[in-house]
């Protein structure tokens, strides 16, 4: 009884469609030669910034750029939870931190090669996410956010105090891998990992897993009726997010060549959430840009205001606080005025680059009607 | 062989006995109607059949197999398809995306394979897409493939939902008020469509339906529920002329009419 449809075999099934007004479709827009050249120039410029600019900058700055690339991986991890399942994680610093310590421990204490250490960080990240995912099947919304918050803080208090794993307050060395010992080479390595993550995220959303997640988020009953095992797919999303987070943590550790537990505090969890939401949930490019932005903002803020913002009364605002000052403002702006986040702004540019018109209007792909209205589902 | 057998199912919600000892069956290729006034327990019965509710007692058999304990998605995998009274679709997605989502079990690759982008999954996606487009063509939705579902008129939504359920490749189709919101003429057209779909897709159909002429037009057998209990069953004509059914359906009003018109 398999269902093989021959499109022509439908004479008797008269479409009941007469009442639907069919939109008049104008012939698709094709740019001319100049248009294509312009698009090529823009793409080349973006590629040049990403690939070439770091070659002419100092090690300190390349180290920061690398961190931006890693933040993009972490943002994409959180996007899987927040964007695809609609569950908020306020304990993501713990996921990332455990990835960082696992990898550092594997290399420094166990003497394992870099790739094995990273793999282990991803496995550990996946496992802890699986546990949290199991919790999310019972508790959702605000209470789940509370559980993740507690988990993150508890991890700080307990796991991160295991001397052997984290090296205590002294920290754990995490040397860069062979062949990638310079900051620049390591930057390219991280770009390669980001590319892999973007690839997985893209394929996930283009295939049955992503469609199932969208259905589960919006209407679990419908998803189940379509044959989706709601529990399995929710857990799958958590594992994917955990694996990405573990990878991000591991890369972060080796970028710094030294991990200290104080880095993974609640403030970091907040920055992760904010950069993902402001970047634009369910918008890959938006999340990457948002994450990179929040990673870089402190450094450039520092550069611009030479060591801090001198406000009369308040002596100095150290750069560590830049994201946490700018973040909430942008978050508020995103939630109230600009629900698609940065991704919403980037959409027209992306459309243009793909050979379309530069326009923010779109019949079905408009982020204000997709990503937009649903930002509210992270209000827990 | 019976495709579907509901054997003495009961379920209670607090003080409401939503279904009491309900039994019904549908044979291969049959179109079975379920009628009854509002709150009679029709949708509840569907929810028991599809696995959203576990009956307090009773059993559900599908193709001879006891499926009472199976999950919703497992029943879908066995070939059960269902539409909802209030339209079961992913509203923020387009028509095509819905038809693709509904082919979850038809994909032929695992979610993991899709995620890492194994070569075969690209071809599989093209196949699913072709199938979605063909199905949309059959249902007259070809022009709406890229339209977001949320903005579509109710009648079209119902048709998209039917397409989505057909995309799951069901052997048994459970339709919860498929013609709600339609006028008598549209309902009649739907009847013709349904007969055609049954032929094309080899379907057994159980449908909750209020349009009596449509029930008479297509149904082989009809069950009437009232207050969670089976009130009558039989051919459409027999059930339609059953005085108890008339009384239940038209309520108090009918009772008065019947009494008045009864010869004293
Ligand atoms: N999950 C539930 N919790 C509590 N009561 C329920 C639940 N599901 C159904 N009921 C009750 O069971 C009774 C039957 O409801 P059901 O939806 O099956 O009626 P129906 O025959 O489909 O009516 P309609 O024609 O209005 O769709 C109603 O009184 C309803 O309130
Ligand atoms: Mg109902």
Order of helices and strands of chain B: EEEHEEHEHHHHEHEHEEHH
Q: What order do the SSEs of chain A take from the amino end to the carboxyl end, as H and E? A: HHHHHHEHHHHEHHHHH
Give the end-to-end Cα distance of chain A, rounded to a whole number of Å.
44 Å
CATH topology of the largest domain in chain B: Rossmann fold
CATH superfamily of the largest domain in chain B: P-loop containing nucleotide triphosphate hydrolases
- Quaternary organisation: heterodimer
User: What general form of chain B does the structure show?
Assistant: globular
Which regions of chain B contain 5 or more consecutive residues with pLDDT less than 50? none
Q: Biggest β-sheet of chain B: count, sense, barrel?
A: 6 strands, mixed
Total discrete domains of chain A: 2
Averaged pLDDT of chain B, please?
92
Distance between the termini of chain B: 47 Å
**Beta-strand percentage of chain B?**
15-25%
- Please, how many helices of chain A? 15
Protein described:
- The complex is a heterodimer of chains A (380) and B (264).
- Chain A has helices spanning 33-51, 59-85, 92-108, 114-136, 141-157, 163-166, 183-206, 208-218, 220-225, 230-256, 266-279, 284-304, 322-337, 341-353, 368-372; strands spanning 172-173, 258-259.
- Chain A has 380 residues and is mainly alpha-helical.
- Chain A has 2 domains: 50-264, no CATH class; 266-380, no CATH class.
- A two-stranded antiparallel ribbon of chain A has the order 1-2.
- In chain A, helix 3 (92-108) packs parallel to helix 5 (141-157).
- Chain A is globular and about 65 Å long.
- The two termini of chain A are 44 Å apart.
- The model of chain A is unreliable at 1-22 and 362-380 (pLDDT under 50).
- Chain B folds into 2 domains: 1-79 and 170-264, Rossmann fold (3-Layer(aba) Sandwich); 91-169, no CATH class.
- Chain B has helices at residues 42-50, 72-78, 95-101, 111-116, 119-138, 154-167, 184-201, 212-218, 236-240, 243-261; strands spanning 2-13, 16-27, 31-35, 57-62, 65-66, 80-82, 172-176, 204-208, 221-226, 229-234.
- In chain B, a hairpin with a 2-residue loop joins strand 9 (221-226) and strand 10.
- Chain B has 264 residues and is an alpha/beta fold.
- Chain B starts with a strand and ends with a helix.
- In chain B, helix 3 packs across helix 5 (119-138), helix 5 crosses helix 6 (154-167) and helix 7 packs parallel to helix 8 (212-218).
- A 6-stranded mixed β-sheet of chain B has the order 6-7-8-3-9-10, sandwiched between helices.
- Chain B is globular.
- Chain B is built from 10 helices and 10 strands.
- At the A-B interface, helix 7, helix 8, helix 9 and helix 10 of A face helix 2, helix 3, helix 4, helix 5 and helix 6 of B.
- Bound molecules: adenosine-5'-triphosphate (ATP) and magnesium ion (MG).
- Magnesium ion (MG) binds at residues 42-43, 85 of chain B.
